[in-house]
Specification:
Elements: H1 21-33, E1 38-41, H2 48-59, E2 64-69, H3 76-95, H4 100-104, H5 112-120, H6 124-137, H7 143-161, E3 165-170, H8 181-189, E4 196-202, H9 205-213, E5 224-227, H10 233-245, E6 250-251, H11 253-263, H12 267-283, E7 288-289, H13 291-304, H14 306-316, H15 319-328, E8 334-335, H16 336-343, H17 351-359, E9 363-367, E10 370-373, H18 376-385
Parallel strand pairs: 1-4, 1-5, 2-3, 3-4, 6-7
Antiparallel strand pairs: 8-10, 9-10
Helix pairs in contact: 1-2, 3-7, 5-6, 6-7, 7-8, 10-11, 11-13, 12-13, 15-16
Length: 388
């Protein structure tokens, strides 16, 4: 079987996970010392989830590391179910045990009497929190009490098992749909148990500010911030070159420079472009890749993303935001005054749209008055398809 050369999509591990040594080293130190909570912020396709997965792999023998995908949480009841599930299964994973969560899961289904019987076999904090949920099923407590019970369980579980616990809320901006209820409860619990720490990973600058950075925010200055930036050019070029050489395929330095420039150093994109180049080379029986090959492969990649980008452009942005993105797609960076001039509107009338685009990390502010589209592949697609 041919060795896997590139991985496209999903969480990646070494040798496909590259360029994050500094972040791994420093956050690992925080995790193992339970020194502080952390926030990981970055735009889509920057590798936030992969960073969490690789952190977990490195420290899972020392700490119970539960990663919660907040996109799975559609209700406060889900918050209880999903958080407790991932914590218990992370404990099972660390200690190579099975069966605790299987018995605990009975609280979510079937008859309440049989559920009580099942969790009574477990005892301790797991039995306690199971009993809380069964009361919720009997309408004896409400959803807000269930949130409090979730955090109480995390703390009790840490004490009972004598474990250091890390809860990572991935795509944490999804929790904001609950009107701050989760963050408000978390405020009273976050530093009560030093053996429990949290990582918040997401792509919303506005929520980061509202929850962690405003003086009157729920979790003001209770977590250290990490901004994930594009992978540095030297790592991108080395990675692509080395992966292709595994199949005796050579690539010019000019082609490597083009790959980095086109993808903007976004891990997902240079993995995808590298795979298309590899695939084309194998099919065409080529052993050398040049800049022309990169151009052809990049066009193929844009075509593949066409429906996704079109839906994103049509559905996600207001009419004024669409005009702003259209103008910004012409060049890598533009001044706000030039954007306003081209749209034929005062700069002041763009403030709300620019703020919302920046908060969602669709655009980035480089310096006073200068802006650019964060995702360069999306920018090129806009230039190619919307400006025509």
């Amino acid at each position: 079987m041919t060795e896997q050369v590139f991985i496209v999509g999903g969480e990646v591990e070494p040798p496909f996970f590259i360029g994050r040594d500094e972040e791994i080293k420093k956050i690992k130190l925080d995790i193992l010392s339970s020194a502080q909570n952390n926030i990981i912020i970055g735009p889509r396709r920057m590798g936030k989830t992969s960073l969490l997965r690789n952190l977990k792999k490195i420290v899972k023998d020392h700490i119970v590391f539960a990663i919660i995908n907040c996109r799975e949480i559609t209700s406060l009841t889900d918050f209880f179910k999903i958080t407790t599930r991932y914590l218990i299964t992370a404990y099972e994973d660390k200690h190579k045990k099975k069966g605790i969560y299987q018995r605990f899961s009975q609280v979510f289904k079937g008859k309440i009497t049989s559920a009580y019987s099942s969790i009574a076999e477990i005892r301790g904090s797991v039995e306690y929190v199971g009993g809380i949920y069964l009361k919720f099923r009997d309408d004896e407590i409400n959803e807000l009490e269930l949130i409090t019970a979730t955090f109480e369980f995390i703390e009790q579980f840490a004490n009972e098992k004598n474990e250091h616990i890390l809860i990572a809320f991935d795509e944490f901006q999804e929790l904001n749909r609950f009107n701050g209820n989760i963050f408000n409860v978390m405020k009273s619990r976050m530093d009560s148990i030093p053996d429990v720490r949290y990582i918040f990973s997401g792509s919303s600058i506005s929520l980061l500010h509202d929850v962690f950075l405003k003086p009157d925010s729920p979790l003001y200055l209770m977590a250290a911030k990490w901004q994930l930036n594009p992978i540095k050019e030297k790592y991108v070029k080395k990675f692509i070159k080395n992966r292709l050489e595994l199949q005796d395929i050579q690539i010019t330095d000019q082609a490597l420079t083009s790959i980095n420039k086109l993808t903007g150093g976004f891990p997902f994109y240079f993995q995808k472009l590298g795979f298309i180049l590899y695939q084309n080379a194998i099919l065409e029986k080529k052993i050398n890749i040049d800049n022309k090959d990169v151009e052809i492969a990049f066009c193929a990649m844009l075509d593949e993303f066409d429906s996704e980008f079109e839906a994103r452009y049509i559905d996600k942005f207001s009419e004024q935001q669409k005009k702003i993105l259209k103008i910004l797609s012409k060049e890598k960076y533009r001044r706000l005054s030039h954007i306003a001039r081209d749209i034929e509107t005062p700069s002041s009338s763009l403030s709300t749209s620019m703020r919302d685009l920046n908060n969602s990390m669709t655009i980035e502010k480089l310096k006073e008055g200068w802006y650019g589209i964060t995702d360069n592949v999306f920018r090129i697609w806009l230039k190619k398809n919307i400006l025509q």
